[in-house]
Amino acid sequence: MLNATVDSAKKTPAKAAPRSARSSVSSMSVAEESAAHYLMMHGVVCDAFYTNELRKCSGLAHRDVTVNIFKNLWTWGQLTHRQAELVVRLHTEGYAKLDKFTERKGQWAKEKTERGPVPVGSRVPVSGTVVSVKMKDTDYGPTLKMVVDDYRKFRVYATVPAKIHTVTRPQGGERELAPGDVVMFIAGRLSASKDDPTFGFVSRPSKAAATAHDAAHV
To answer: Taking a C-beta distance cutoff of 8 angstroms, is the pair 71, 63 a contact?
Structure first.
């Protein structure tokens, strides 16, 4: 909560000061002067608006919402109490997301240094753990795709063969393929990414098999 109480009275555009009262030095309108004074008196709100780290992180802290409120401040000269609270809350949440994102980037960088090169070639066996599974729209219609972390320390992106769209649970029954499941298949063709030699692309996967991750430890 903000320490200072914000006047939440009905907002009305600030009236322009008489020409004789205007400063010949300052080109700011009355509303802009009020906004500047408001920011000086509400340091927490000012910090939330002017945090460069959050501004550079697209999508963090609902940036569009914050920008719109900032524009309103310079139009009306002040914020309502609710607007001020929202800006500070989004600022705090944004920092939490930024810290988490920075931590994840560090983990990705560490993992990348530990990876090995993709064994480019034809009919390359791939076996490892599923990292992600997503449905993608392709020229052939919706297609299930997966990223697999091979045991030889490289990752591949491949179409999920129809045979392993579902896996058998150890207690019986079937479920959809999910992250953590263990898969094995033959890559008809395995090529490396131009930007990352530790990441590969699979063409024509065949002879696939999968084991549910909860069954791998039974």
So the answer is: no
| 100-131 pLDDT tens trace | 777 777 776 777 777 889 999 999 999 999 99
End-to-end CA distance of the chain: 51
Token couple for 71: 């524009």
Shortest CA distance to 45 belongs to which of 27, 16, 72? Answer: 72
Task: Catalogue the E-assigned strands of 40-140.
Answer: 121-138
pLDDT in tens, 123-151: 999 999 999 999 999 888 899 999 999 99
In the CATH scheme, what is the code of domain 121-211? 2.40.50
Listed by start position, the domains of the chain span: 19-112, 121-211
Which among 145, 142, 147 is positioned nearest to 180, based on CA atoms? 147
Q: Measuring CA to CA, which residue among 147, 157, 206 is closest to residue 178?
A: 147
Could you tell me the pTM of the whole model?
A: 0.52
Q: What are phi and psi of 18, to 5 degrees?
A: -55, 145
What is 126-163 written as a DSSP string? EEEEEEEEEEEEETTEEEEEEEEEETTS-EEEEEPPGG
Task: State how far the Cα of 84 lies from the Cα of 82, in Å rounded to an integer.
Answer: 5
